[in-house]
Amino acid sequence: MPVELNALRQHLVDQVREQGAATDPIVLDALRTVPRHLFLPDLPPEQAYRDEAIVTKRDEGGRPISSSSQPTIMAIMLDQLAVRRGQRVLEIGAGTGFNAALLAHMVGEQGRVTSVDLDEDTVERARENLDAAGCQDVVLVTGDGSLGHADGAPYDRIIATVGVWDLAPAWRDQLAPGGRLVVPLDLRGVQRTVAFEVDGDHWTSLSAQPCGFMRMRGPFAGPERSFLVGETVTLSLPEDRDVDAAALADVLAEAPAVAGTGTAPSANDLFDGFSLWLAVREPRWCSLSEVAGADSPLLRAAPLTAPESRVTAGILGDDGVALLSRTDGELTVLGYGNEAVANDLLVHVRAWESAGRPGTGSLRVDAYPAGVSVPDGGTVLEKGECRLILTW
C-alpha cells in the first residue's frame, strides 16, 4: 500500500507540473510528501489524489461552504506565497487542514503555521486530520479570519484559502515588514488570486492568477448574490439586485436571436481575460451555470464546460438578457428581449479583441486604504476598507 500511495502522490505532482502551476521545489516537495488522503478520510485514496476540488461541507440549503481545494490552484497560490524555512504563516480558512499541512512541511520545524476558521466543527475536523498526518504543531483557532490572529503575530506570510471581497486591516497590521499576502480577491464577481506586498501607504500586487473559491462568510462577506433559475441554473450577480427568477427562466426557454462576434477565443481566454474585462466594465454583468446533463437545459452551447456544469456570462438588463455562446466554434451572442442588451455585449467583445485580449497575466492591482488619495488612471473598484486600482 505505501508504494501505491507514493505513486498516487507522484502522479498528482506530475499533473500539477503539467499545468505549469508550481515552479518552486519546496511546493512540489510538499505535495509529494504530505498525504492528502488522510485529510479526506471518507474517500478512497484514488479519488483523494485527483486534481480536483472536493466539497466537504454544505449549508442547510445544500450549498457548499467548505472544501479541499484543487491541488493545482493550491500550488499556484503557494508558489505566489514563496514560503521559506523558519517563517511564521497565518492561514485564513482551515478547510480539511491539508493546506496547513503543506505549509507546515514547507516552513519546517523552526517555522510555525496558524490556521483560523469561522466554524468550530471545521476546526475540530481539521485537527483530527492534522494529528493523523503527524502535524500536531499546527495551531488551529476558531474565529473570524478577517481579524487574523494577533496572538501569533507578526507573520511573514498570510494566505486566505477562501474568497475575500475586501482586504482586512488586521492582515496588514499583523504582517511583518517585507511580508507577503496572498488572497483570492473578488473583482466584481470574478476572483483572481493576488500576491501583495506593502508599498508605502498601500498594497501592490506582484502577480495574479485566475481562481475560484467559496466566499468568506461573516462580517467581511461581500455583496454577491445568487438565484436559482428554473431547476438547474444558478445566476450569480456581483451585487444585490431584484431578480424575478421564474420570469428569467421563462425568457431563457424562448428561442434567442443569435449574433456572431467574428472571433473564436479559447475557453481559457474567455475565463482568464474576457470575464474580468466584462466584470469590471459592465455594471449589469452576470454569470450563469447549469448542472451538466440537465433534462431540459436552459443554457445553449455555453462556452465554458466542466465535469459537473456548463458556464456562461453576459449582461442582465431590465428588459433583456444577452449571453455568450458558441456556434460552430465561433463565439456568439444570444439575445433575449431588448436587442440593445445584446448589442452592448457585442461592443464589449469587440473592444476586448481590439485591446489585444488582455488577460490576468498583465493585471496589476493596487489597494489603497479607504480615505487615502489615489493616483489617476486605471479602473477603480470601491471596497469597504480599501479602494482597488486595476491597470493592465
Structural class: alpha+beta
Could you name the CATH topology of the largest domain? Answer: Rossmann fold
Q: How many domains comprise the coordinates?
A: 2
Please give the CATH architecture of the largest domain: 3-Layer(aba) Sandwich
| Text of the CATH class of the largest domain | Alpha Beta
Q: Quote the distance from N terminus to C terminus.
A: 50 Å
Instruction: Give Rg in angstroms.
Output: 21 Å
Strand residues, percent: 25-35%
Compute the average pLDDT.
93
Cross-sheet strand order for the largest sheet: 5-4-3-6-7-8-9-18-20-19
Biggest β-sheet description: 10 strands, mixed
Residues in helix, %: 25-40%
CATH superfamily of the largest domain: Vaccinia Virus protein VP39
DSSP strand count: 20
Organism: Actinophytocola oryzae
Keywords: Cytoplasm, Methyltransferase, S-adenosyl-L-methionine, Transferase
Subcellular location: Cytoplasm
GO biological process, one term: methylation
Structure report:
This protein has helices at 2-18, 25-33, 45-48, 71-81, 98-107, 120-132, 169-173, 245-252, 267-281, 339-354, and strands spanning 54-58, 64-68, 88-92, 112-117, 139-142, 155-160, 175-187, 190-199, 202-211, 225-229, 233-237, 257-260, 285-291, 304-305, 309-316, 320-327, 330-337, 364-369, 379-382, 386-391. It is of the alpha+beta class and 392 residues long. It folds into 2 domains: 2-211, 3-Layer(aba) Sandwich (Rossmann fold), CATH 3.40.50.150; 225-354. A hairpin with a 3-residue loop joins strand 10 (225-229) and strand 11. The termini are far apart. It is found in: Cytoplasm. This is Protein-L-isoaspartate O-methyltransferase. Keywords: Cytoplasm, Methyltransferase, S-adenosyl-L-methionine, Transferase.
